[in-house]
Amino acid sequence: MAEFTMELNEEQREVRDWLHGFAADVIRPAAAEWDEREETPWPVIQEAAKVGIYSLDFYAQQYFDPTGLGIPMAMEELFWGDAGIALSIVGTGLAAVGVLANGTEEQIGTWIPQMYGDANDVKVAAFCSSEPDAGSDVASMRTRAVYDEAKDEWVLNGTKTWATNGGIANVHVVVAVVDAELGSKGHASFIVPPNTPGLSQGQKFKKHGIRASHTAEVVLEDVRVPGSCLLGGKEKLDERLARARERAKAGGERVKNAAMATFEASRPAVGAMAVGTARAAYEVALDYAKTREQFGRPIIDNQGVAFQLADMRTSVDAARLLVWRASWMAINGKPFTAAEGSQSKLFASETAKKVTAQALQILGGNGYTREYPVERMHRDSAIYTIFEGTSEIQRLVIARTVSGMSIR
Ligand SMILES: Cc1cc2nc3c(=O)[nH]c(=O)nc-3n(C[C@H](O)[C@H](O)[C@H](O)COP(=O)(O)OP(=O)(O)OC[C@H]3O[C@@H](n4cnc5c(N)ncnc54)[C@H](O)[C@@H]3O)c2cc1C
User: Fold this and answer.
1) What is the pLDDT of residue 333?
2) 0.85 exceeded by pTM
3) Confidence class of residue 255 from pLDDT cuts 50, 70 and 90?
4) Atom 7 in ligand 1: which residue has the minimum CA distance?
5) Which residues pair with 293 in a beta bridge?
């Protein structure tokens, strides 16, 4: 019974140190430039592909780490380097999870390699669920997928928004309505293969933070994809829809839908990204407070500053523990009876916002300029309480789970 340990094993420590080296030597030095350019940092993604960080193999190795800590550890280190660049590197992984969670083995084998490309010709992928009128309220999604039985093809029409890598992706994973009567239970996920006619990029957004990561609308006009592009296959979809119709008739017991399954699997990973940004800002602030002198002594010599740093470190460590717990539960198939995945995302993302704001304050005027990285980290941190479900939605999920009531 002495199995419980809070320590990473030797292999995990090696991977963590290797990732940290890449984050410190390659990502961090490029961060300010790509933030200003507001463009996908292709050379950095290529560099990551060359050393094996941007690859299916690496992602799968971390994803299937039996302790569950592979992905959170990787996210924390890369996002410690820089959030915008790191999201450009791991955005494809978020789309790949959609395929891993809902796809058949054949779909996983066919499409995930095309999401990454190879080191000489890197590609990215996008996961497209959100729409202009369907953000938190996923059930009000309008993008339709209609089956053309004669041709065994699905025809997709609609507009997606906020898609990370949307329009520049080689492979798009698109969530669409197949049965409007069933609300979010009538959704399914589709692969849109490279160069499919009818898919185009709409507006590219200019953002507050994570500016190196490409975010855009994706327009789908009579996009035809083969039947084999329905994730999980038609038989499984028909069974799932039949069960949902039965439940709807019987009074509406809740069932998981394709998009929710993807979000559930990726929430602790987003928490880990937030831990990376928070830790980075805390470290800059700690160094600064020890060297910056006012009134003849380092500013950390004031309890007002030192206690803030103590609180910042405590929050970062607490956030990591919640992320690790949820990740361990996920890989071990433990039921999330208190929405522990959402708890980890909620706490870590709020921590990142708070800690980066404290760091900015500790750096004073310097914190407010682009001469120091906390200004960027502070802007970047705001995304964590918004994407993959806002903080309010995480609280809703947690409150509903622990109470068993449909709190609104
Ligand atoms: C940079 C970026 C990248 C993104 N990447 C992707 C991506 O790759 N793929 C993708 O599909 N989506 C992506 N998103 C979309 C993201 O997941 C949504 O923005 C998010 O789900 C919130 O939806 P919304 O923006 O429509 O806000 P809304 O749902 O309109 O919410 C507005 C406000 O109302 C609050 N609110 C809403 N409903 C409730 C409620 N019931 N109770 C209390 N408060 C509530 C929200 O918490 C929020 O504060 C991305 C977004 C951004 C900004």
Assistant:
1) 87
2) yes
3) very low
4) 163
5) 298
